[in-house]
Amino acid sequence: MRFKQLDLNLLVALDNLLALQSVSAAAERMNMSQSAMSNALTRLRTYFDDQLLVQVGRRMELTPRAVAMQRPVRDILVRIEATIETAPDFDPARSERVFRILLSDYSLSVLMPRVLAAAQEMGATVRFDLLPQTAHPYHLLEKGEADLLVSPEPYASEDHPYERLYTDPYVCVVWSGSRHAGRPVTRQGFLEAGHAIMVPPNSAGSLEAEMLARMGVERRVEVRCFSFSTLPHLVVGTERIATVHGLIARTATAHLPLEVSPLPFPVETLTQVMQWHSYRDSDPGIVWLRGLFAEAVASLGGIDGVDTPDP
User: Fold this and answer.
1) Is 90 a domain residue?
2) What pLDDT score was predicted for residue 296?
3) Could you report the per-residue pLDDT of 173-184, keeping only the tens digit for each?
């Protein structure tokens, strides 16, 4: 099919070439031979009267026109994909649809098990592909590479709809045998103590670290790890403090010798949201998925210290 003399099949090739900036990588992603992809690039260069990709040393770089086309081309394909994939009806008990969900290790440990249990209870046959959060997670929504994003509200995009799930305060956890136990952690004690912190492995931000930094609070970091859910384990048997979400702390204290204390600073409470692409706002499958998350959140209400949204 052609539109204004452009073979529309070439749009997919163009999208992959612009994203990967490599003929061989684009060919592999599309299950094409490298010569076929090279031929597609030649045809695209002729149509647009532009080189699009140019060799610079050992790598290829986009021309200014290619850079300008990159986002619009992806947007066109995401819109087409959303239109084609959106069926008028959705039955979770008969569907084999794969939902790609972007979330942090915190959401993976405290919320996702409840989501999966709720899906199991209703006999859903859908599948879930759980993806790690990135520095700018909403970009994957815009590219159509994720169906749902679960993240702190500051990391959500203003360009797409989202819904608040719940709030969860940040707290300190300390070993019950440490000098910090038996009383609330003080500001001085927090500043003087050694800390175990989470540093994302993929350049994503840590909201509590950003908030403390804005307040001018500098922690004496002695242990760095890549998982919030592991932090409570790492302070057991030590004098260190870990700053974690309330849900993680309350889960950890059920089976670890830990005590929980409020942060000695007025840190904003975490507001967790779920976000989806505006093109999929009426997608019955996404609507069902959002309802599934809301059902899972309702089950959090029995956990002390967790605020759930009003119905």
Assistant:
1) no
2) 94
3) 999 999 999 999
- How many domains does the chain contain in total? 3
Q: Does residue 185 sit in the same domain as residue 63?
A: no
Please check whether residue 82 lies inside any domain of the structure. no
Kindly state whether residues 287 and 162 are assigned to the same domain. yes
Q: What is the pLDDT of residues 20-56, one digit of tens each?
A: 888 888 888 888 888 888 888 888 888 888 888 888 8
Between CA 198 and CA 206 the distance in angstroms is: 8
Question: Does residue 176 sit in the same domain as residue 251?
Answer: yes
For residue 193, the domain's CATH number is 3.40.190.10
Quick: pLDDT tens for 72-128: 887 777 777 766 666 667 899 999 999 999 998 999 999 999 999 999 999 999 999
- Tokens 């300008």, residue? 68
Residue 28 lies in domain: 2-77
**Residue 259 C-alpha from the chain's centroid:** 30
Torsion sign (Cα): 122, 86, 157, 199: positive
The residues, any chain, with a CB within 8 Å of residue 226's CB and separated by 6 or more, are 105, 198, 199, 200, 201
